[in-house]
Design goal:
By secondary structure, this protein is of the alpha+beta class. The chain contains five helices and six strands; from the N terminus they run αβααβββββαα. It has a six-stranded antiparallel β-sheet with strand order 1-6-5-4-3-2, with helices on one face.
Length: 227
């Protein structure tokens, strides 16, 4: 068993109940979008975290929309990092609603173990969200503090030079030996339908919120168990 694994624990998000939970939450948040305002864009953040400069911000300097989410982790950054380092389809998964994702053909396997073969991402590595979708690429690696992935609208059929999107993971030390885990997405896109569909705020923001919130809570649980 990999270091920090939980022997016999069930992978996150497996089964009909989590799938129904995830689908229901996404439907609820999509329906509530006209009333939600910007509250989901900074869920879980404290103080100035939502506005703080984070590694990778410069990759999309003028986003058309962005979010920053945060959770407390009762474990040091070194215990959080392994779960972030191995994130991805065909790697450690996304620690979210696995069964729901796989209904869409994502072929995700959420691990409950630290996988040594996926602990050393390097700049330029491809990280897939779906086996048939264009990958994101690793742009920043700074263990145990930051992992930044970047993708471009051109990768999904949008116009060349139509912008970019980032998925940023940042781990900060917190008082008492714990951590703050932040995730941020920044999106720029052109006005053609391909890049708008892939990177526009609706429906992506509601879906990303539901999946990311579950992911961050699971990473916290796994890191705390490993620590």
């Amino acid at each position: 068993m990999g270091a920090g694994g939980r022997r016999g624990s069930r992978p996150p998000g497996v089964g009909i109940v989590p799938a129904l939970e995830g689908a229901g939450l996404i439907a609820l948040h999509l329906a509530a979008t006209p009333l939600a305002g910007d509250g989901r864009l900074h869920w879980g953040t404290v103080g100035t975290e939502a506005a703080d400069a984070l590694p990778g911000d410069d990759l999309v300097p003028d986003p058309r929309w962005a979010y920053t989410l945060g959770v407390d982790v009762a474990a040091p950054p070194a215990a959080v990092w392994p779960w972030i380092a191995q994130i991805g389809q065909g790697r450690g998964g996304f620690y979210s609603y696995q069964s729901l994702e796989n209904l869409l053909g994502c072929r995700i396997v959420n691990t409950t173990e630290v996988l040594p073969e996926h602990q050393h991402p390097v700049v330029g590595d491809e990280i897939r969200l779906h086996p048939e979708a264009p990958p994101m690429r690793v742009a920043v690696v700074d263990p145990p503090r930051a992992l930044v992935l970047v993708g471009a609208p051109a990768d999904v059929g949008g116009e060349q030079g139509g912008g970019a999107a980032t998925w940023q993971f940042v781990v900060r030390e917190a008082p008492g030996g714990g951590s703050r885990l932040l995730t941020r997405g920044r999106y720029d896109y052109s006005d053609d339908w391909g890049s708008r569909l892939a990177f526009g705020r609706f429906p992506l923001e509601a879906i990303a919120f539901v999946m990311s919130r579950r992911m961050m809570r699971e990473i916290a649980r796994l890191a705390e168990g490993g620590a």
